C-alpha cells in the first residue's frame, strides 16, 4: 500500500479495545501503509485485540506483560524471529492500583509506588533496550504521557509521578539512542474516556474541566492522538526527538479558568 508509512513496520503495545489511544495510533499508521504487530497483556485481552488487528490486516499478535522481563524478552524474540528489523514502537501502557488514584498522593504505598513506576515508566526503558537492536537503520520510539506529570491534577497521584519519570526517560533515551538515529518522543494526550482512565477518581470532572477550559473548548479524540502518532513515527518528524508533544486541545498553555466557562 502506498503512503507515508509504506515499507515500514512496527510494534503497537497497549491496545485493550477500540477506545484505546494505541488503537487510534494503529489506525493512523495503517492508513498510511504501515505493517503492524500488536502486543497484548494476558489471554483475556487477546479476544478483543485479535479482531482489531484483523481490521488493519495484521495477524501478528504477541502476548506480553511488560512487568515481567522474561516475558518481554520472549515477546521481542518472537517479534525478531518474524521481523528482524522494525521501524517504530508505540508504548501505550500504564497501570496503578485504582485505590490510590483517588484520595491523596501522600498516602501512596511503597508496593504500589514501585509497581506503578515499573509498569508505567520503567517498561518503556525495557522496551527501548529490546527494540533498539531491531532498528539498525534508525527508528522511532513513542510513548504516551499526561499533563499530571507536569502539574497537580486531582486523583492522578502516583501516576503523575510515574509520568514525570516517563517524560524524563524520553529525554535521556533520546540522548542515548540519537547517535543510532533512533528518535524517542512522547505524546501528552488530553483526557479521553478509556479503560485505564476509568480507574482515575472523578475522571468525568477532569474531562468536563478540560472541555470547558482548553483553548479549543473541547476534548481530543483517539484519532487526533493517532494523527500526532503518525507524525512522530514517520519521517515527517525526522528532526524531532526528546519531545513531549501535547495533543490536548491546548489545555497545557492556560493559566486560569476560562472566563466563559460555567461552574461544574
Ligand atoms: P487503555 O486501558 O485502553 O490502555 C492501557 C493499556 O495498558 C491496556 O492495553 C493494558 O492492557 C496495558 N497494560 C497495563 N498493564 C500492563 C502490563 N503489565 N503489561 C502489558 N500491558 C499492560 O487506556 P489508554 O487510556 O489508551 O492508555 C494508554 C496510555 O495512554 C497509558 O500510558 C495512559 O496513561 C496514557 N494516557 C491516557 C490518557 C487518557 O485520558 N485516556 C491521557 C493521557 C495519556
UniProtKB/TrEMBL annotation:
Pathway recorded for this protein: Lipid metabolism; fatty acid biosynthesis
- Which InterPro entries did the record assign? Enoyl-ACP_Rdtase_NADH, NAD(P)-bd_dom_sf, SDR_fam
Q: What is this protein called?
A: Enoyl-[acyl-carrier-protein] reductase [NADH]
EC class name: oxidoreductase
The record ties this protein, via PANTHER family, to: ENOYL-[ACYL-CARRIER-PROTEIN] REDUCTASE (PTHR43159), ENOYL-[ACYL-CARRIER-PROTEIN] REDUCTASE [NADH], CHLOROPLASTIC (PTHR43159:SF2)
Quote the EC number.
Answer: 1.3.1.9
| Reaction equation(s) it catalyzes | a 2,3-saturated acyl-[ACP] + NAD(+) = a (2E)-enoyl-[ACP] + NADH + H(+)
Please provide the record's keywords in A-Z order: Fatty acid biosynthesis, Fatty acid metabolism, Lipid biosynthesis, Lipid metabolism, NAD, Oxidoreductase
**According to the UniProt entry, where is the signal peptide?**
none
Per the record, the domain of life is: Bacteria
Query: Could you tell me which species this protein originates from?
Result: Sphingoaurantiacus capsulatus
- Annotated Pfam families: adh_short_C2
The record's comment on protein family reads: Belongs to the short-chain dehydrogenases/reductases (SDR) family. FabI subfamily.
Note the Gene3D superfamilies from the entry: Enoyl acyl carrier protein reductase, NAD(P)-binding Rossmann-like Domain
